[in-house]
Every structure is written in structure tokens, then in C-alpha cells.
Fold this protein.
Amino acid sequence: MKVHNIKRYLERRRELRKASTPEEKILWNELRNNKLGARFKRQHSIGGYILDFYCFQARLIVEIDGKSHDVNKLYDADRDKYFKELGYLTLRIKNDEIHSNLKDVKEGIKKTLSLRLGEGVLSLSKDG
């Protein structure tokens, strides 16, 4: 049974890409084109869920949490459990972190990628 990018979610994925939040645009600029050493996709779907960012190689999901996630904690927990059962790791990043601490956000993602890909811990250059 296919669980990745099911066709019935195609139009919704396109809509979400076109209507990206400012935080998604900022982080996408840092993830795209293998900038952190792995390929990411945005608005990829697995099962009935559409992800902010997804790295197939590392089985890593990166979600940016805005204020709506404060009231949807149970939904997020169920979603994360579903992905964990499939062998994925979900990193949740708050909107504020994108604005106030982008360098550390990138460092955290890079370290997680490194660990998930079995390469140990790598650090970003000073230029980030």
C-alpha cells in the first residue's frame, strides 16, 4: 500500500507550497539544494499527513509549529506517534526559533541528520 505522496493530496500539497508561511520560506531557503548535506522535500505527504519538510535518506520530518500547534498538542502527539511507528523522527521547531535562533535550528537539524545517517556529529562552518 502506497503511503507517500498519495494523489488525492496532490492539490493540497501544491496549495500549501504556494501559501508557505514566512517561517517555512526562511527554513526552506536553508534546507533546499542539499545545503545541510541531505535532500529535503517540502509539503511531502505520508499517509494522510502533509509534512512541512521531509528527508527521505534520514527518515527525518521537520515541522514548524505556529500558535495553532499550542491547541493541537494531542493531534501532534498522535501524528508523531504514527511516524515513529513507521521509523521516522519528527523534529518540531517553534516559529520564534526560526526568527531568533536560525543558526542553532540549522545546527540541530544538521546534527540530527548526521546521527540518523550514521555519520556521527558534524558541525556547521562559522558562516553557517
Observations:
- The longest helix spans residues 102-116.
- Strands lie at 41-42, 45-46, 49-50, 53-55, 60-65, 89-94.
- Residues 68 and 77 are 14 Å apart (CA to CA).
